[in-house]
Amino acid sequence: MKKVVIFDKASKWWHETPNVELLNKQITEIEKDGWRVISINSNTNLFGTITSFRVAAVIW
What we know:
Elements: E1 2-7, E2 10-12, E3 15-18, H1 20-32, E4 35-44, E5 50-59
Antiparallel strand pairs: 1-5, 2-3, 4-5
């Protein structure tokens, strides 16, 4: 089974950049549930600013 999560929680409401510390916590929680993260991709806007991350995981 495969799971894809879009992570776009920003650290500040006036700045689009996602909160990487919160992303790391969410990845740790996913791994504790028995999922294995296989890829993390960044999504950017037109100006090249990272706006979100896509996390793909499979269950072992």
